[in-house]
Amino acid sequence: MKLKLILTTVAIVACVYTSNAQYAGDALRFSQTLAGSSARFKGIGNAQTAFGGDISSLGANPAGLGFFTKSDLGLTLEYNNYTSMARYLNFNSNGTRDALNINQAGAVFHIPTYRPKGSDLGKGWISFDFGLGYNRNADFGNMVVYSGTNPSNSIADYFAELATKNFGSPNTLSLGSLERMAYDDYLIGYDSNGDYYFPETDVNNIQTKTEERRGGQSQINMAFAGNYSNKFYLGLNLGFARLNYISESNFTEKGYNVTEASNYQTTYLQDQDTKGKGFNAKLGLIYRPIPNIRLGASYETPTWYTIDDSYTEVLKTKHVKAGLENTNNPENYSYTYKLRTPSKLSLGLGIILGNFGLISADVDAIDYSKINFRSIDNNDLGIIYDNNSDVIDNYKKAYNYRIGTEFKLDQIMIRGGYGIQGNPYKNLDDKQFQTKTLSGGLGYRHKNYYLDITYQQNSFNSDLKPYQLADNSGPRAFVETNRHNVFTTFGIKF
Questions:
Q1: What topology is assigned to 24-154+201-493 in CATH?
Q2: 332-376: pLDDT as tens digits
Q3: What does the domain layout of the chain look like in residue ranges?
Q4: Residue 336 burial (10 A CB sphere; 0-12, 13-18, 19+)
Q5: Could you tell me the pTM of the whole model?
Q6: Among 224, 232, 246, 268, who pairs with 251 as Cys (CB 3.0-4.6 Å)?
């Protein structure tokens, strides 16, 4: 049987996975991307649907490419620092992780149209722009640590329930199954009279969980846009997406084994390695009814992924007094499936404040209940059906909001922004499971060169259960996570 913890980007929610493996939590994580952008638009909260003329338009609203008047080459680097504080069984623990990545790189080529001498240069198709770029749309890195003394139950209670539910007498326990590992490690015993498994461990055990996560989602974008009469800007983007997610989890429990009359320590190791490739498209429009107002809209199709998932688990247990120590062979489970993420509709309003700056506001609508799984060659249809049912039962439509401003002081720009990524869960509190983003930055322009730097903080709450018993009880960790990012963009116009 298979046990697997699925951790979402916004809320870390533990789910138990049996032989009908479920991947709904992974699918949600892979559906919560944000358009990659330069440090400039990071500084205004990533509110960029109604604005263009920036390398960010390669991954956001492609219509924004129509605002370019020169070709452009840009690179954005990012530094990420994750800090998490977890409260578990009335004890507090902290975790931290750092990473350095390329967030964005790209080039835009400006192509003015040929206009006969004497024609009105402000009418018709004025220019076209083509761009090619790389965006990092999501980062999965984090370190979650929690520890405490459990006065109520043991992870052996969970193993015993699994064995009772899925097997009969010990000779039916599948070799390599988690239940067999727990039985061979003397964590659970079997009552032949009652035909059930029971935990051999006592309560008041010390439990510690550490999980390190790495990886992210990225996309290669090919975008094209045109400027019609300096009023309408139309754009198309083709995206080739990749994802890589790695999770390494270590759950350790120390306590007293009543049956063996010995202190024990058991370690449950879980590793997940998920990779995927996909493609999508985006259509965009920006309209200028008057010079100082811009109205933007973009539609992003679903991303159609093919995903390869590899999961490994193993138990290692030592009984001190009894002199027993057992290390099982790791058991690996692999599965390949098709995933369709939900589409996204974005609307934006931009206001130009003369020569002083701008204000930008965006809203996205994403229906996470539209996540859909498909099998490869019609295999494992039960898994596909169960996961599609989980999506419909647990996820809903959510809205993202972003607002930001930029003020100009000659060659210096000062920026600030705020955003909320909506709660995708039907049965969890909207305010508690939102992701909030606060950003601020500076920009500098000198002739054809530009430099932007932005600090951004993301904060979100998470709810994690290392295991869950049949009566829905079990220990719970409440995690507060903050991600501190610094983005730096270098660019040249030519």
A1: Porin (2.40.160)
A2: 999 999 999 999 999 999 999 999 999 999 999 999 999 999 999
A3: 24-154+201-493
A4: middle
A5: 0.87
A6: 268
